[in-house]
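Standup notes
- HV: blocked on the assembly model, inputs below
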Amino acid sequence: MLTYISIFITAIFVNNIVLSQFLGICPFLGVSKRIDSALGMGAAVTFVMTLSTIVTYLLQTYLLMPLGLDYMQTIVFILVIAALVQLLEIIIKKIAPALYQALGVFLPLITTNCTILGVALIVIQKNMTLLESTVYAISTALGFTLALVLFAGMREQMSLSSIPKAMQGTPIALVAAGLLAMAFMGFSGIKIG
Amino acid sequence: MNKTKILLNGLIKENPTFVLLLGMCPTLGTTTSAMGGLGMGLSTLFVLICSNVVISMVKSIIPDKVRIPAFIVIIATFVTILQLCMQAYLPELYATLGLFIPLIVVNCILLGRAEAFAAKHTPGESFFDGLGIGLGFTVALTLLGCVREFLGTGHIFGRPIYPEEYGSLIFILAPGAFIVLGFLIAIIHSIKTR
């Protein structure tokens, strides 16, 4: 049990996927102008990441490894993720139109979100079990959502302040992200188990 | 179209890092040293040129509806080739760049250029576009790597410039990446608008 709690806390705070591992910076900068769209993106990522990690994990252990096709990993994974996102989009549209309204615009963006492929590759590199991988995927996605929502809150405030002309837009957003990353470094002393 | 114009367009006018703000993850993640930035830039350059040329050669036989998955497969193939070659011949650099090599597949610069340029132009022109954009990315990453390594450790490409104990470690760590890139973009903005 302690292992899972440790994975959970580490993935959210200590090794936050965006602020300390630099994955998923594009949506982090792109979809963080308002808190509600940040929450929508976070929910969509959580959904896709958990599913895709389970599917790619099973494919790797039961198909690629026994057949000695490890070198096809990158190609197979990205195709599976792309197909999964497409499939999810169709299913959600059919059975839950309300959810589709909320998440729909974010789903196509997720295929090229490097966190999804990144997490699928990390769990295999670290030799995690299926359950550990699932916990890791969920907590990483929650960490992503947390970073996105916090950053969106900062940007909503920032839009009210006056900023030197050259720093407007992306530069000030990057500096603010740097400060947020610095705040998250405070968690790096935490050790569980 | 003029070849030099395509090349300069990628290098300066549409610089993927400083102007288009594409491919941010490797930009921030691999530039803890100038060498890391240069290695990542050149790896991306290789995949970009190969995928651009191949995509522009096969563009007419790919049905329009499946073109994005087809582009991704072509890109992923070259990334796998690069990955295997690096593991064999440059294991040290491969260990430094780590996860970011397979993640070149989801770098938006590659798919972006495939869709915006290679799918509409000849293989020759696509080669120069890949070269220009790839060099623009390499220059930007190397510059960012140099600044971070210089401020953080007092070295550039591993050569000492000032004693290491005066460096401030924060520039090598995660927050420094964001802050240095923010200021570099601001400097480029202000030079441009002057």
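- HV (later): unblocked. The interface with chain A takes residues 21-22, 24-29, 68-69, 72-73, 76-77, 79-80, 83-84, 99, 102-103, 105-108, 111, 170, 173-179, 181-183, 185-187, 189-190, 193 of chain B (CB under 8 Å). The first helix of chain B runs from residue 3 to 13.
- Next: hand off to the docking folks.
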